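Quick note —
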Amino acid sequence: MRAARAAFDDGRWSRATPAARKKVLYAIADRIEAEALDLAVLGVRDNGTEINMALKAEPGSAAGTFRYYAEALDKLAGEIAPTAPDVLGLVHRAPVGVVGAIVPWNFPLMIGAWKLAPALAMGNSVVLKPAETASLSLLRLAEICADCGLPDGVLNVVTGTGAETGAALAHSMGVDVLAFTGSGATGRRLLEASAASNLKRLYLELGGKSPNVVFADAPDLVQAAKVSAKGIFRNSGQVCVAGSRLLVEASVHDQFVEMLTAEAEALRVGDPLDLGSDIGAVNSEDQLRRNLSFMDMARAEGGRIVTGGTRILQDTGGTYMSPTIVSGVTRDATLFQREVFGPVLAVTKFESEAEALSLANGTDFGLAAGVWTANLSRAHRMVAGIRAGVVHVNTYGGADNTVPLGGVGQSGNGHDKSLHALDKYVDLKTAWIQL
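Predicted structure written out below.
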């Protein structure tokens, strides 16, 4: 943190020209792209994501993110206020100073880039803490940044536990903004730490229990089943926006669950470095035990496990779980209300659009959602009515850097991606000049 502050204060990066910062960020993007396979493998060794997905979601996404903010940084101008003729009012965007970033283990390089690239683009210094179970790709990224000309001290990647390294960042009097992706419980502790220290600004991207709503008039139920399966089972369900609650209109419920079950059972779970694997491993033994504990709760609360629900491939020594579908999940059930962060889909039946909307908004979360319908008016009503940061229509996932990602309610605040993310890493400074 001292290194980051010194680098910021002496202006080696904070006062560099936009053209100079752009050149370095472009070089970082090019290097990430050149080392994509190596970086993807580093990540897979840590977190078990299937390699086909890891290549696209980790180095592929990170390179695109650095390139996006490199291109954006010299397109942002200050403002001239509409003042009286004898006054000049200017609004400057000034870098905040030292940014702390704490990122999770599921997509460390992608989510790390979401925070690093806009913070660096605006001239800040950064101290980044990876998850203790997934730090390899971000440590390599720090080396890449140094090789590409990012000055010493501007980016600092510090490993360690949340209780030690994360707490040090959160309680620091020298961190001006803290950006976090992770659990709600940790987010609450970070808020307390901010209040107890320097009132640093916090941006929290927390959990989700995202509804995926399928109406009987969906344009293609077969396609909806294929995409919905990927929307929950990719990366073993360890995706913050995963469509983990499937809400299906009663008239097509049985048919759709049958199609979805066929899709789930066709997925090949196995070695994440095997190109033939559709689904990789669960991150850790602890996470796997947590996932399986939800199965006991689901049965006790009247849910029916349609497929999966068990540990598999235990003889390999890996932590694998079969793609799981649980039907008959009621609104007050644990599986309806709590985030699993595993390959577990809760299915609930509805009779009307009004009931679907009520169920979609029936948790404390509000990160993402999906709606499948051929009725344009219904689609717009659902987009307007669902409380979530992103609502997909007739698809699930795939939104790129041009649009923001963030939640409402207990899914957090602030946004990653898009030009809106830059707002987190600047202070607005007014100059009021009497002429």
